[in-house]
Amino acid sequence: MRMAPWWLFLIGLVVTFPSSGQSQTTNLLPEEQNTIDVFRRSSLAVVHINARQRLALKYEDITPKSGVGTGFFFDREGHILTNFHVIEESNQIEVVLTDGRRLKARLVGTAPGMDLAALAVEVPASDVTPLSFSDSDSLAIGQKVLAVGHPLALHNTLTVGVVSSTRRTLDYLSPELEDSLIQTDTAINPGNSGGPLLNSKGEVVGIVTAILGDAQNIGFAIPANFARRVIPDLLRMGHPYRPALGFAGVPLNRYLADMFGIPLQEGFLVEEVALGSPAEAAGLRAGERAVTVGQQAIVLGGDIITAVNGQTVKTMGEIARALLAGRPGQKVTLTIYRNGQFLPVEFFLEPMH
């Protein structure tokens, strides 16, 4: 029997044995592969932000303050979203791209109370891979989320966790963000601020904004749906449109309703109405009888707001968010409960300041 040439055996060996890369890929679980894929795609859009405040003195130039954080491209025009506290009081902002390029950034718009800011850099559209936003209202507790950022200047760091809760509040944020923050156990550290919180599709569900310093893995993100409503104003005007209505109050609950014989158990109880405000002009009524519940003073007898433009509301945060997309001169209809009746109260949003 005639033997085959020796080199055919070598070819067989090369063909038969897979490369180390192939072996690793084969051994990955679907969930692991998903995590890897999301990181590879999203990291192209994530940037490192260095923000500095330079003061020019008569004889020297010093840098008294600097901040670092994360941001991400959300369009192909070079616009980047980040946290306001990352660039606060800075007059020099540098953005570091994934490939190492350092670009000077221009501040486009800010929303301090909402902790959002928009930047712009000069970069070819072909070099930008923007992230898309998902519907953050559909988030479920326990859902997998991923954060990509630059904690402690460790570039392109990935951490993975779950949605721990929703509808959280931080005291220093604006009423629009009341009871709306995403809580996550995804590891977040200084430098992650402004970075994306992503779902398993690689879509932005939140913008990382804060952590509890005296806890472990309790972090918060601004919902994507909220950011989407604010971004157009940041790009167009440099700030969000926030119409003032001129009233204040407290959320109504079953405990208060039962204690004081209020027919409704949910809604927003109006305690005071400012003189000369749109609320006063529309005829919204304030409370008249002050009582104390525990250590809280409450004024009873005012209108109870149950909806804004047909959207059910229970808190000032929900009222503020319902008006966030409003425009100057737009008519707003509040549904109120007064003297046993549900009534409409209409007014027009104030001009832009």
Explain how this protein is built.
The longest helix has 13 residues, at 30-42. The protein has 353 residues and is α+β, with helices and mostly antiparallel strands. It folds into three domains: 47-55 and 64-127, Thrombin, subunit H; 136-236, Trypsin-like serine proteases (Thrombin, subunit H), CATH 2.40.10.10; 247-348, Pdz3 Domain. The strands form four sheets. The protein has a seven-stranded antiparallel beta sheet. It has a six-stranded antiparallel barrel with strand order 8-9-10-13-12-11. It has helices at 6-16, 20-27, 30-42, 84-87, 224-236, 254-260, 278-282, 316-323, and strands at residues 46-56, 61-73, 79-82, 92-96, 102-104, 106-111, 116-120, 144-149, 157-168, 181-184, 196-198, 204-211, 219-223, 247-252, 267-273, 289-293, 296-300, 304-308, 311-312, 331-338, 341-348. A hairpin with a 2-residue loop joins strand 18 (304-308) and strand 19 (311-312). The relative contact order is 0.10. It contains eight helices and 21 strands. The model is unreliable at 1-23 (pLDDT under 50). It is globular, with a radius of gyration of 26 Å. 20% of the residues lie in helices and 37% in strands.
Layout of helices and strands, plus pairs?
Elements lengths: L5 H11 L3 H8 L2 H13 L3 E11 L4 E13 L5 E4 L1 H4 L4 E5 L5 E3 L1 E6 L4 E5 L23 E6 L7 E12 L12 E4 L11 E3 L5 E8 L7 E5 H13 L10 E6 L1 H7 L6 E7 L4 H5 L6 E5 L2 E5 L3 E5 L2 E2 L3 H8 L7 E8 L2 E8 L5
Antiparallel strand pairs: 1-2, 1-4, 2-3, 3-7, 4-5, 6-7, 8-9, 8-11, 9-10, 10-13, 11-12, 12-13, 14-15, 15-18, 16-17, 18-19, 18-20, 20-21
The CATH class name of the largest domain reads Mainly Beta
List low-confidence stretches. 1-23
Given the C-alpha coordinates, what overall shape results?
Answer: globular
Radius of gyration: 26 Å
The tally of strands reads: 21
How far is it from the N-terminal to the C-terminal residue, by CA?
96 Å
| Helix percent band | 10-25%
Strand order of the largest sheet: 5-4-1-2-3-7-6
- In terms of DSSP E residues, the strand content is 35-45%
CATH topology term of the largest domain = Pdz3 Domain
Largest sheet: 7 strands, antiparallel
Number of domains: 3
Mean pLDDT: 89
Would you identify the CATH H-level superfamily of the largest domain?
PDZ domain
Number of alpha- plus pi-helical segments: 8
CATH architecture label name of the largest domain: Roll
Order of helices and strands: HHHEEEHEEEEEEEEEEHEHEHEEEEHEE
Sheet/helix structural class: alpha+beta
